[in-house]
Amino acid sequence: MRDPGPSNVSRTMIAVSITVFAITSLPVVAPAQQPKRPANKPVHHGTVITRKTSPAKHAASLIRQMELPDRRSVAWRGILSIGAPAAKPLALATKDPRPEVHMRAFMLLSMLRRDGEQALPILDEHIAGDDESLRYAAQWAKGHIEFRGKLLTDWSKHTVVHLNEDHVAVNTIKGLKGPWHAEPCGDGNTLVSEYGAGRVRVLDKEGKALWEFKDCKNPYHAQRLPTGNTLISDASNERVIEVDLKGKIVWEKKGLQRPVAAMRLPDGHTLIVENRLGVCELDASGEEILRHKVGGNPIRAQRLLNGNTLVTSHGDNKVYELDLDGKNAREPIAAPKAQVALRRRDGHTVISSTKAWFELDAKGHEIWRMPGSYATGVYW
């Protein structure tokens, strides 16, 4: 008689046994070796953290992180790296009742430039409101957002010229005394530091003075803040000061070696260029936390969104990009008698180089040039 073979039940039991044996025979992978990442885990790209979420939600998260002192430096650069989607979350932050929160939001909106346009409706609400400090900050931020073109400062021609985006002059402020720097400060007005006159003024389009501070000597650079205060590089008095609208000094750093530029950052830090030493960074308490030695009489610096620092060296005839260790992050840009270099988020760099202003694209190709008599300043 032929053996009928295993029954259906026996076959099933054999199959189950084989499957269990195969599973239990697989190598065990420790939890730390599992390749799966929890949802929404931060992904690090250089010094800025990005998340798998919408840009606007990411911006809102970074705005909240700005409340943490040890996160502010990375967070503000992350917000600006997002660009236009960060405008609405920042606009909402301007409604926060805490001054330190809403003033940071106004500053960041101003740094977005045209990418901050989605915030304009809320800024207009502030401008129409009753709070004087919010009205001023909103008008100031709006001035930066709506500005188009470039401001060119010429020391020997005693002028500040506003070029539109087609590089056509649309306004010229004349009769200045050794102007070195100019920037918009809201409502169509311009902040100008006059090295030759030893003063910093706010001028309307016709050149009429609306505000003035004269207790300084050879001020190369000034920055108007959203509070209405002004940060001034008082070079020959070897100090950087912050003065309010009444001219009262509310912050001061003395004992510097010919400070020719100072920039307040959104995290409350201050980036200072000492013409005889290099670049230093002070935290919000005024303590030095970073120093780069730069030769050749450095004259301007800008903190980039990647954490590096763009430094203009007049004597070296170069523009350097320095990493956190003070080393060159890329090949320096040749710029004879360089005065100022500013880089946008798109990688373009505009430079004032004493006898000319010129613009380079992200690959370093020159795409615009304009001769100057003594080109000292540029803003865009």
Polypeptide structure, described:
- This protein is an alpha+beta fold and 380 residues long.
- The chain folds into two domains: 46-144; 148-379, Neuraminidase (6 Propeller), CATH 2.120.10.
- Helices cover 22% and strands 35% of the residues.
- The chain contains seven helices and 25 strands.
- The protein has helices spanning 8-24, 55-65, 72-82, 87-93, 99-112, 120-127, 132-146; strands spanning 43-45, 48-50, 150-154, 159-163, 169-173, 179-184, 190-194, 199-203, 209-213, 219-224, 230-234, 239-243, 249-254, 259-264, 270-274, 278-282, 288-293, 298-303, 309-313, 318-322, 333-334, 340-343, 349-352, 354-360, 366-379.
- Strand 18 and strand 19 form a beta hairpin.
- It starts with 7 loop residues before the first helix and ends with a strand.
- Mean pLDDT is 89; it is low at 1-47.
Please give a handful of descriptors for the protein shown:
4-stranded antiparallel beta sheet, 22% helix, disordered N terminus, Neuraminidase, 7 helices, 7-stranded antiparallel beta sheet, single chain, 380 residues, 25 strands, 2 domains, alpha+beta
Secondary-structure topology with pairs:
Elements: H1 8-24, E1 43-45, E2 48-50, H2 55-65, H3 72-82, H4 87-93, H5 99-112, H6 120-127, H7 132-146, E3 150-154, E4 159-163, E5 169-173, E6 179-184, E7 190-194, E8 199-203, E9 209-213, E10 219-224, E11 230-234, E12 239-243, E13 249-254, E14 259-264, E15 270-274, E16 278-282, E17 288-293, E18 298-303, E19 309-313, E20 318-322, E21 333-334, E22 340-343, E23 349-352, E24 354-360, E25 366-379
Antiparallel strand pairs: 1-2, 3-4, 3-25, 4-5, 6-7, 7-8, 8-9, 10-11, 11-12, 12-13, 14-15, 15-16, 16-17, 18-19, 19-20, 20-21, 22-23, 23-24, 24-25
